[in-house]
């Protein structure tokens, strides 16, 4: 049942091309038109949504944070992402023009369920992005967009995360299509790029040995930091969470731009720092900014490990290790850049002899508040 892999987690990391492909399957036609019929919310209502609030916990909340960048860009709808357990207790502003998008792999997370119930009581429309057919959160929501990642057995979430990002992107594209805004013309291209993602994930998996070796070689690390910017920021936090959960070592993800506002004080000789570098082809000279962040930490003794796009030669000068991921649209890059971080955490924790499927103190579905 582990498909020949030593753990469910390793199998599930390798299931990811399929998880993304199945989540995309049958949800658009050849003309690049989204057909999310399952969304059963009156399209007129969706046209009038003026705010989206994504509710989730843990890894699922990081999927929401990634999706926020895409939804705001494509739909021009203000999008907040909030941890479910924080949302309920702050008297949030929610009304009939608010669309709540909950993200939950299990569909049973009590904090998220309670937050969805609360939002419904305030009159909001609720969409659930969920991986578990017939579970409680989708049953209680107005609509559901299932992620078709297949059952996720390992406690730490991997394939569900990529499937959640994929589903949230489909929802974003669908809203953009409905609202007929200026990104209309791009939808077809983005869908085409999304459809190329599974093969690109497969290429990363085919070259996983290099990152596995690094994970094994770092098994005595006491602390690992992760930096990212834009969509790379939630990826950095997800990389850190995987390492905390599986290897029980201190790990932290930061927004690269935040370094000089405090975290750079942590950097000392030999501190390992992963940096998720945006594509040099992207907008807003983000690439140059992140490269200068790499230089800043390196000048203070950090051991830098860089995830960059194939062909990005510029980063080599500043990195002890570079892992290349295939080219894609900037917004889609998390579907690729997360994968080496998952493999790293898996390899490091395995080298320490830990049970990667059942990390200590954790449960697969958190059905208590
Ligand atoms: C991390 C992890 C957790 C879950 C979180 C939410 O690897 O698995 O952080 O993402 O407990 O669970 P769901 O998505 O089932 O609501």
TrEMBL record:
<dbReference type="GO" id="GO:0005829">
    <property type="term" value="C:cytosol"/>
</dbReference>
<dbReference type="GO" id="GO:0097367">
    <property type="term" value="F:carbohydrate derivative binding"/>
</dbReference>
<feature type="domain" description="SIS">
    <location>
        <begin position="41"/>
        <end position="181"/>
    </location>
</feature>
<keyword id="KW-0808">Transferase</keyword>
<keyword id="KW-0963">Cytoplasm</keyword>
<comment type="subunit">
    <text>Homodimer.</text>
</comment>
<dbReference type="GO" id="GO:0006002">
    <property type="term" value="P:fructose 6-phosphate metabolic process"/>
</dbReference>
<comment type="function">
    <text>Catalyzes the first step in hexosamine metabolism, converting fructose-6P into glucosamine-6P using glutamine as a nitrogen source.</text>
</comment>
<feature type="active site" description="For Fru-6P isomerization activity">
    <location>
        <position position="364"/>
    </location>
</feature>
<dbReference type="GO" id="GO:0004360">
    <property type="term" value="F:glutamine-fructose-6-phosphate transaminase (isomerizing) activity"/>
</dbReference>
<dbReference type="GO" id="GO:0005975">
    <property type="term" value="P:carbohydrate metabolic process"/>
</dbReference>
<dbReference type="GO" id="GO:0006047">
    <property type="term" value="P:UDP-N-acetylglucosamine metabolic process"/>
</dbReference>
<protein>
    <recommendedName>
        <fullName>Glutamine--fructose-6-phosphate aminotransferase [isomerizing]</fullName>
        <ecNumber>2.6.1.16</ecNumber>
    </recommendedName>
</protein>
<keyword id="KW-0032">Aminotransferase</keyword>
<dbReference type="GO" id="GO:0006487">
    <property type="term" value="P:protein N-linked glycosylation"/>
</dbReference>
<keyword id="KW-0315">Glutamine amidotransferase</keyword>
<keyword id="KW-0677">Repeat</keyword>
<feature type="domain" description="SIS">
    <location>
        <begin position="214"/>
        <end position="359"/>
    </location>
</feature>
């Amino acid at each position: 049942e582990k498909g020949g892999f030593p753990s469910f987690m390793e199998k599930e990391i390798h299931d990811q091309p399929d998880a993304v492909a199945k989540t995309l399957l049958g949800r658009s036609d050849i003309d690049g038109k989204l057909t999310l019929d399952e969304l059963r919310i009156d399209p007129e209502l969706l046209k009038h949504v003026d705010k989206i609030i994504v509710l989730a916990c843990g890894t699922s909340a990081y999927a929401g944070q990634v999706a926020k960048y895409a939804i705001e860009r494509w739909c021009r709808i203000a999008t907040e992402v909030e941890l479910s357990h924080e949302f309920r207790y702050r008297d949030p502003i929610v009304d009939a023009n608010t669309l709540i998008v909950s993200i939950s792999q299990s569909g049973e997370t009590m904090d998220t369920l309670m937050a969805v119930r609360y939002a419904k009581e305030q009159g909001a429309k609720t969409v659930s992005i969920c991986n578990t057919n017939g579970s409680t959160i989708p049953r209680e929501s107005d609509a559901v967009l299932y992620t078709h990642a297949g059952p996720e057995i390992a406690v730490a979430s991997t394939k569900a995360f990529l499937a959640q990002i994929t589903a949230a992107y489909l929802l974003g594209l669908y809203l953009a299509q409905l609202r007929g805004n200026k990104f209309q013309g791009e939808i077809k291209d983005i869908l085409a790029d999304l459809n190329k993602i599974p093969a690109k994930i497969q290429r990363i998996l085919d070259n996983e040995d290099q990152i596995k070796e690094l994970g094994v070689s770092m098994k005595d690390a006491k602390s690992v930091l992760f930096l990212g910017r834009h969509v790379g920021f939630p990826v950095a936090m997800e990389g850190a969470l995987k390492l905390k959960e599986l290897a029980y070592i201190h790990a932290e993800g930061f927004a690269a731009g935040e370094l000089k506002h405090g975290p750079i004080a942590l950097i000392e000789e030999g501190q390992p720092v992963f940096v998720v570098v945006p594509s040099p082809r992207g907008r807003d000279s983000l690439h140059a900014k992140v490269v200068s962040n790499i230089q800043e930490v390196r000048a203070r003794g950090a051991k830098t490990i860089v995830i960059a796009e194939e062909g990005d030669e510029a980063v080599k000068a500043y990195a002890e290790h570079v892992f290349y991921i295939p080219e894609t649209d900037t917004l889609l890059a998390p579907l690729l850049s997360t994968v080496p971080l998952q493999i790293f955490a898996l390899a490091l924790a395995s080298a320490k002899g830990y049970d990667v499927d059942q990390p200590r103190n954790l449960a697969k579905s958190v059905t208590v508040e």
